[in-house]
User: What shape does this take?
Amino acid sequence: MKRSLKALLGFDLATTDKAKGKIKDFLFDEERWVIRYLEADQGKILPRKQVLIPRVFLDQPEWSKGRFPVKMSKEDIEKCPATDETLPVSRKYEQELAEHLQLNNYWAVAPPIIGTSAYPPRPIVTPENQVKEEDVDTNLRSFKEVIGYEVDTSDGSYGELTDIIIDDDDWQIVYFVTNSKYTDTEREVMLAIGWIKEISYVNQRITLEIDFKNMVHAPEYNPATPVNIEFEKKVYDFYGRNQMKWNIP
Assistant: This one.
């Protein structure tokens, strides 16, 4: 099922020994578009310490209860190496955390090959021409960091990034949502990650190959309505009819 990351912020998080917290943020891998870590709030589980929990320790989420059980105790989290409050998280810290928790380095494993018969297509790499900060040793990005990035079409600014949609089977990021800040009508639209031409984390901008007119007439996204296969097809069919050149791996 496809789920909104914005809707998951504030979900309860419970350790094996019943210590409770809430989800504060999600960190995703910008190369493979997948959620790697959950960040818990600092006041419930460990005051004054940034708590990053690798997604592999997430037990089966209780979606209807808004609850994320984790396969770690409060003591397990207390023993994890501390990280700075500021983001981004360095690769050095990830290495220390992986060694402490006896995890394999995900960045040393090649991404899976995904068949072209899947519908909709799945993003497994970042779009071409991505702008990177050369001096930052990390592939991690904060969900909260990218919210508000400007979204540009091929011929003008459209709006701002408002949400990210994941597949809850494997926490793969599949869509992003943008508002219509620079149009006459207030609405949101959903687009596949693979349709991004360029992301500039330095300038906080996302550039699409879609023209402004298509964005204005695209199917409207309603956050109160689940993203189901019917809506996904509607989105893909719309851009197909408008001869959209999809930038999909």
About this structure: The radius of gyration is 19 Å. The mean pLDDT is 80. The longest helix spans residues 229-241.
